[in-house]
What does this fold into?
Amino acid sequence: MRHAVLILSLALAAGPGLAADPPAEPVHEGKKLSEWVKQLEDKDPTARGDAGRAIGIMGPKAKAAVPALIKALKDKEPSVRDWACYGLSNIGPDAKDAVPALDDLLLNDKEMKVRRIAANALGSIGAAAKPAVPSLRKTLKDEDPWMRHFAAVTLGALGEASKDAVPDLVDAFDDREYVVQKSAVEAVGAIGPSAKSALPALLKVWKDPNEYVNTRKAAARSIRQIDPETAKKEGVP
It folds into this structure.
């Protein structure tokens, strides 16, 4: 009896009051996350870039690395900034603290590749990247067509948080590059009902026999996403 009471007492002592073990630190290629974070400070830029890539491969489990990756966005080597953006992109919404730094890269980095992946990272963060919408709207008018494309895609990824950009996206329906037109048409659909002001322009695209087939199909999808009733009324398939 005394033995049973002792076992019960130990069980109670080890119950709710006992802290759970912390989650195991993620590992990639035999190195813990903390080791890869430390490598972001390596003297060798290749090693620093490898660290950003490794952290990105770990994905959301590597969210503890966000402060170090934000610091790496200011690295003097473009390849390191590139991989730091990749890491943040793969971490996703938990990288929201990086939005101001990514916004700055989007507008001001001298390397186009870095600007593009910064846009991608903002899109992966999602609605929390709303503060970057003004910069993305500006980027829709960038000289580089791929930057315009990535801006449109990112605005779509932010969903309703991008509703202020609808007029700019509608303007992009007339972009001289097909890839920009299509991504802008898709973006307003991703914004959803808050993009109702885009419906007349979308209907025009869908009805235009001279438009690319894929753009017309994208317009039909966006009309359905924004207002199913309008789609039904207009005979949009």
User: Anything to note?
Assistant: The radius of gyration is 24 Å. Residues 1-19 have pLDDT under 50 and may be disordered. The chain has two domains: 30-132, 140-237. The domain at 30-132 is CATH 1.25.10.10 (Leucine-rich Repeat Variant).
